[in-house]
Amino acid sequence: xxxxxxxxxxxxxxxxxxxxxxxxxxxxxxxxxxxxxxxxxxxxxxxxxxxxxxxxxxxxxxxxxxxxxxxxxxxxxxxxxxxxxxxxxxxxxxxxxxxxxxxxxxxxxxxxxxxxxxxxxxxxxxxxxxxxxxxxxxxxxxxxxxxxxxxxxxxxxxxxxxxxxxxxxxxxxxxxxxxxxxxxxxxxxxxxxxxxxxxxxxxxxxxxxxxxxxxxxxxxxxxxxxxxxxxxxxxxxxxxxxxxxxxxxxxxxxxxxxxxxxxxxxxxxxxxxxxxxxxxxxxxxxxxxxxxxxxxxxxxxxxxxxxxxxxxxxxxxxxxxxxxxxxxxxxxxxxxxxxxxxxxxxxxxxxxxxxxxxxxxxxxxxxxxxxxxxxxxxxxxxxxxxxxxxxxxxxxxxxxxxxxxxxxxxxxxxxxxxxxxxx
Length: 423
Prior knowledge:
2 domains, single chain, alpha+beta, Rossmann fold, BirA Bifunctional Protein, domain 2
């Protein structure tokens, strides 16, 4: 058998790394400026962490997709399918509820689910995750949503938009689940098997079905946001007022739901229309009941996550200039004689210390061969030097896109290149 990556996993090659690092750096900058500290939790947890987090009416899809195994001691462990449960476990274990509240945390890394592999869905995938733990104020919900929007903006996206909804308080949820069971009782046998099971255990999750037949059967139903009672409706109105004041573009979407028992009130998604059916980049919501389900104190929280692979897909579709420039060398240095080989490598090291991505030829090249090497590297510019340029203390700088070439004094090459890159 030919050895290859397992279905649903992928190698992140050197050529792909700059855009991955750019997403991570954008999250670190935006979330760090908001006071969030980075937390790294284990890739696997005791299975109980995830079983407790989904509650009695378990999210069937997540449960069935978890990678669970026994260790040598016979203990059941699970590769994390999502971040929030593990972060809250760490919050409780390390007594973070004694810190000044709220506590803001962010994470990044791989997650694992036995998905049906398709565009935007992998079995090992990566997310950036954010949590605000310790306040139930509507402004915290709005802040979390604004940070999600702005983090994606810092990644380079410009055509993403928030969809905002609410699942209400537990009493709203109970009333809505009763409403769904009553309304769908006469057509339950026409639902897909998965939706029939959801209707029995967790009716709200029926609204998440992507099956066209299911959608036709539920199209006439009211959505949770349309049946909110006083406190939950006031909370949603306050979140909207903050988002409007801050200029965060959003749409109130009654179809936004969150199926897990611990979700309360605010629910949201972020979509990018340009990557097909899998337009959702991420989402989140308020989870005020989660800490108690994991054996911790009553601590409210709100959080979100977005898929890194989906963001990269959106960036590619948007042909974002910033992301594309980060993914190619700024300069390829060509030595036209033996003496220039050392000069080319020294120039590369010098410019790299200024934060530029620079490659160079490891042996002398004639101009034609050197420029072909530069083209293959996908560099934006080439710098060439031989005996004539050395005698004048200069380099030939060539724009590989336009073909423009000019001679630049060696002491000015760094500044001229920076100016050209910026423009």
